Amino acid sequence: MAPKSLFSLTISLSQFTPPHIPSNPNPNPNFPLNSRAPKPSIIICKSTNSQIQSHQPPPPNLPVSAQESDGLGAAAPTRGDVYLSRQKSMEAAAIVLSESKNQRNKMKAKAKVLSVSCYGCGAPLQTAEAGSPGYVDSETYELKKRHRQLRTVLCGRCKLLSHGHMITAVGGNGGYSGGKQFVSAEELRERLSHLRHKKALIVKLVDIVDFNGSFLARIRDLAGANPIILVVTKIDLLPKGTDLNCVGDWVVEVTTKKKLNVLSVHLTSSKSLVGITGVASEIQKEKKGRDVYILGSANVGKSAFINALLKTMAQKDHVAAAARKYKPIQSAVPGTTLGPIQIDAFFGGGKLFDTPGVHLHHRQAAVIDSEDLPALAPQSRLKGKSFPVASVESVPNKKEANKLDGFSLFWGGLVRVDVFKVLPSTCLTFYGPNKINIHMIPIAEADEFYQKEVGVTLMPPSGKDRVKDWPGLQTVRQVQIKYDNQKSPACDIAISGLGWISVDQMIEQTGDFDSASLEKMSGELHLAVHVPKQVEIFVRSPMPVGKAGAEWYEYKDLTEKEEELRPKWYF
């Protein structure tokens, strides 16, 4: 028999399990709780006289959550408690998510209000700086905001522009000297960079008076692979008697050489509405639900074109008729539009956007003072000024009137043409703003004459104050022309941002020419053209203008494939 100090007790675990403890409490922490429970086992308890071994508490370093999360403690949650707790957590998360969503919506609404722009120029509305674009007085702003009419607000700068004030806002490379400069030309160009990644229809505008200077040869940097409708503006300024069939063919020929994806070419006038109906029809045909963006260089006539387009479309589309009430502002100041202006102009979907003009540093407008900008904008039909003059009655020396060799011709203070070698019958005809006069001076006296008369008789620049900052005619380009076709002008010398000079022959109407006369009318011409630094000079094929243009212009013979690939033109 065993001693009394030591006894053995054999029991079954299930017999002494309390009702609130699970049948498998798993006292061994090394055994996973979520594993399959083993069968009840026999536990042997041994005791001595001094000490009885009993169940020890969990190790003190084990977290409380680990002790009770799975139901080890006396107050472990039931499945119902766990379900209710989970439901409360989900409801709390839903409330937080709803509050966060409401906060985001409020922030978006606030940002939307703050990003509302002036419908005249596209500048964001603001009430802080009175002299800046987009400024509106606080009372007007709050009143319009309260009635949700901020999109009907015209900023103070646009009101001044509409009354003829010359207020520039663009500086930097391609901007304008004089006046205040609130945004750089690079920043405006950057605002159009998103177009290359967007599916849109591009309507590209070109000024016929400054065709090469306003063409935007790198249009792909802005438009990407989007299709282009080419619109030539201001054709009502071409000389009287111009055959638009010849001009249209000439434009298509020049455009084809630039290898652009042009759908069609349209000759238009925003003033007389010539050709606008054709553009509206082409846009409706090609937009296919996409947004339509009007692109072009600064002061090419985008806002005037949009106003003419809305006027034409309003006859059949009530949406365009409503959009005419808040149309972009028109001004002679380059850089009038400072941001994209969204216009609801189409009934079938898609938006019309007026965009800031692309400011080019190589145009004359980028080098003269802002007060002289109106002088560069022709207001009436161009009248070619020919030298030597056809009539010699007003010229004291008839020999000098019939010959250009050794003379310099000043086109205001912006261009100087030195004639070193020409044919006896060579004639230079200037096409540009009628306000800018032309002076003919011997080359030997040209430098002294320019220094004395610039700002006085040679304008622009106008006034001695602006002459102090005038850089002068720093760029000289030598032009050598081979003249072998007596029926048409030799070429055009286009000055970016101003106009062009046609190099032609003075032909008397005396019937057929003999071989000696034809030989005298053939040869090489040598000219030197002086312009301000950065201004570009283009030597191009002659544009057929005036009545004479229709007589000498020749249409190119095309193959069927060339005819198919060539864009069509309309007016």
Automatic annotation (TrEMBL):
Q: Which InterPro entries match?
A: G_CP_dom, GTP-bd, NOA1, NOA1/YqeH-like_C, P-loop_NTPase
One short Pfam family name for this protein?
Answer: MMR_HSR1
Q: Which SUPFAM superfamilies match?
A: P-loop containing nucleoside triphosphate hydrolases (SSF52540)
Record field: compositional bias (Pro residues): 19-30
Report domain CP-type G positions.
185-361
State any single GO MF term: GTP binding
Against CDD domains, the record matches this protein to:
YqeH
Q: Where is this region: Disordered?
A: 17-37, 49-77
**Highest taxon in the source lineage:** Eukaryota
User: Where does the signal sequence lie?
Assistant: none
Q: What is this protein called in UniProt?
A: CP-type G domain-containing protein
The taxonomic lineage of its organism, from the top, reads: Eukaryota, Viridiplantae, Streptophyta, Embryophyta, Tracheophyta
